[in-house]
Each structure stands twice: as C-alpha cells, then as structure tokens.
C-alpha cells in the first residue's frame, strides 16, 4: 500500500472550443505488453462512444468534466467538484449532441455525483467487484470535448492507499483524500470523473486529481464507491 501524501490539483476546466481527432492513444510510462495493450485498445474502442462531457454552468464560469453511464436510464457518474458550483447542467456526447441534465445525487465527502441526462440512453459500464492491484494495466477514458486532448490513456496501477490534499478547495468541496489509486498517467483539466477501466472493461476507479509534482494522477477506488452508487440508483 502506498504511504505517500501528495499536493494535488483539480481536473475541472472552463470551456474550450477546440477539436481534435477522436480515438488517439496516449501511452503513459509503464506501458503493458502488446497483448494487454490490444486488450485495452479494444476496451477503449467499445466504451469511448458512451463517454459524455458534463457541463456545469456557474454564476461566474462554467466547469467541464467527464461522465460515464452507470445504467441505461440516463444516469452518469462524475466528480462532485465538477458539478458542485453549477446552477444548471447539460451533457455533450462524443458526436456533439447536447442533452439537458440535472444533478440527482452528490456527496462532497466522497467527491462523487450522479447526473441524470434527459433523453440519453447509453449502455452502462460494468463495475469491477475487486480492488485494484499494483501493476494492473488500466485505461483511462475522458471526454475530448472537456480536455481538448486525446481521450484515451493507457497506463498501469502503481500505487494504492495514497493520500492527496487540494490546497485551494472551494467551500464545501473535499480537500483531503485518502485510499486513492495512483497511476503514472499524464492527464488534463476536464479528466475529472473519467472511468479507469481494466482489461475486462470494468470500472475500477474514477479519476479525480493530478499530482502537482507531475508524478501522475489519482482515482477514487470504485470498490468503496459502489455501495453508494447502487443506493443512489435504487432511490
């Protein structure tokens, strides 16, 4: 288990209007063998079309994040800090279609939120029932509309049980995180809420922070969040 404590930064962003070709693959340090890389590429190809940009319209600025479907009823998961200051919301699909949205559940203490996207039905991502493991190959998906960078990052789990502190958290937002998954991936503003997927295509984490020292990114472990998500969906 990792014993490090890191200064970290949020991965939200104000809107940018820049497009790049979809489906690019960014390989981080610690790349996996070719066969595993092919597995991750297949996962990304299958699941990337289901990813959406979550747009939170605030009183002074807009916030962008990534959302992924947790059921086929229009419910998407993202970070609380993406939607925390929003007054109204909408989602943008990979094809550019826009849908109205609403935050139906949020837990600032977990930095987790459920967003209902009205009129959009996507195939849900499976949740990995097992904890992440050191050395496990993973792929991180993001909304290219939120990051303006390639939406797929191939990486590996290189830390568990990590702690991170956000120096300038907004009032009501979580500032101290524990039990995080660390991956040596280069990620960008707008990656917040993106799923961390295994070679089996199951979500094992939710990307939430980047280390200020450039040592990688951090994700919330899905094993700890799954009971909350299931409870929300039953409401």
Question: Any descriptors?
Answer:
235 residues; mainly beta; Thrombin, subunit H; six-stranded antiparallel β-barrel; 4 helices; 16 strands
Overall description:
- There is one protein chain.
- The chain has 235 residues and is mostly beta strands.
- It has a single domain (5-234), classed as Thrombin, subunit H.
- 15% of the residues lie in helices and 40% in strands.
- It contains four helices and 16 strands.
- The protein has helices at 34-47, 80-83, 144-147, 222-234; strands at 5-10, 25-27, 52-57, 62-69, 75-78, 88-92, 98-107, 112-117, 126-127, 137-141, 152-156, 159-166, 176-183, 195-197, 202-211, 217-221.
- The strands form two sheets. The chain has a six-stranded antiparallel beta barrel. A five-stranded mixed barrel has the order 1-12-13-16-15.
- A hairpin with a 4-residue loop joins strand 7 (98-107) and strand 8.
- Mean pLDDT is 85; it is low at 12-34.
């Amino acid at each position: 288990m990792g014993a490090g404590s890191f200064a970290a930064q949020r991965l939200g962003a104000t809107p940018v209007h820049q497009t790049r070709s979809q489906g690019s693959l960014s390989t981080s340090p610690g790349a996996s063998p070719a066969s595993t890389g092919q597995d991750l590429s297949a996962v990304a190809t299958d699941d990337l079309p289901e990813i959406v940009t979550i747009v939170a319209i605030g009183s002074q600025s807009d916030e962008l994040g990534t959302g992924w479907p947790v059921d086929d009823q229009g419910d998407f998961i993202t970070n609380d800090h993406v939607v925390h200051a929003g007054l109204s919301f909408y989602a943008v699909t990979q094809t550019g279609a826009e849908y109205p949205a609403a935050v139906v559940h949020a837990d600032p203490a977990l930095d987790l939120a459920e967003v209902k996207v009205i009129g959009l039905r996507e195939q849900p991502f499976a949740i990995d029932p097992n904890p992440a493991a050191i050395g496990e190959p993973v792929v991180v998906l993001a909304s290219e509309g939120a990051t303006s960078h390639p939406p797929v990052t191939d990486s590996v789990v290189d830390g568990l049980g990590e702690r991170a502190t956000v120096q300038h958290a907004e009032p009501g937002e979580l500032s101290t995180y524990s039990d995080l998954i660390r991956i040596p991936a280069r990620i960008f503003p707008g990656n917040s809420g993106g799923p961390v997927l295994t070679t089996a295509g199951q979500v094992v984490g939710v990307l939430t922070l980047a280390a200020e020292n450039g040592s990688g990114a951090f994700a919330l472990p899905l094993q700890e969040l799954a009971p909350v998500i299931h409870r929300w969906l039953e409401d």
